[in-house]
Amino acid sequence: MSQAATKIDATSQAAEPATSAVSETPAEPARDPMPRGMRIGESVFDIAYLLYDLVAGITFFSLAAGRTVFVLYGLLALVLGAGDAFHLVPRVQMHLFGVRDDTQARLGRGTQVASVTMTVFYVLLYLIWLQLFPGVGATPRSARSSSRRRPCASWSVCSRRTTGPRVARTCAGRSCETCRSSSRERW
After folding, report:
1. Which residues contact residue 106 at a Cβ distance below 8 angstroms, ignoring those fewer than 6 apart?
2. DSSP 34
3. pTM confidence score
C-alpha cells in the first residue's frame, strides 16, 4: 500500500506544478498561420503607408495657399488614410501580437468604416475633377441626348467656336449659316 500511496503522491505532485504553472501565466494568443517574415513585412508596409498618407495630406494642406484643389487633395488623402487605418491597425496588431478575442470584430468594423470612407473619397475625387475640368461635367443620359452637339461642318468660321487651347469643333447647329444648312442635310 505504501507503493500505491507513493505513486499517487508522485502523480499528484507532478500534476500540481503543471496546473499552477498554467494558472500563473496567461495563455498566449493564437498566431496567424502566415509566416513570421511575411507578418512583419506586411506590418511594416501598412505602417509606412499610413505614415506616407498622413504626410501627403499635411503637405497638400501646407501648399494649398488658397487653392481649392490642394485643399481637396489634402482632405482626400486624410479621408483615405483614416478609413484605411480602421482596418490596417487591427491587422498590424494581429500580425505582431497575435489573434485576440475581439480581432475579428475589429477587422469587420474596420472594413465597414473603410467602405464608407471610400464613398466619401470618390465624392471628393469627383469634386476635384470638377475643379480641374470645369467644362466637363457628368450629366444624366436624358439631359445629354436632349442637348446633343453636332459636329460643325466648317468649324473655322463658326461664330460659336472658342479660341485658345480648347477649340470647340462643335456647335449647337444653329449658330452660323454653315451649321444651319449642314445640319439639315446631315442630320
Report:
1. 90
2. S
3. 0.56
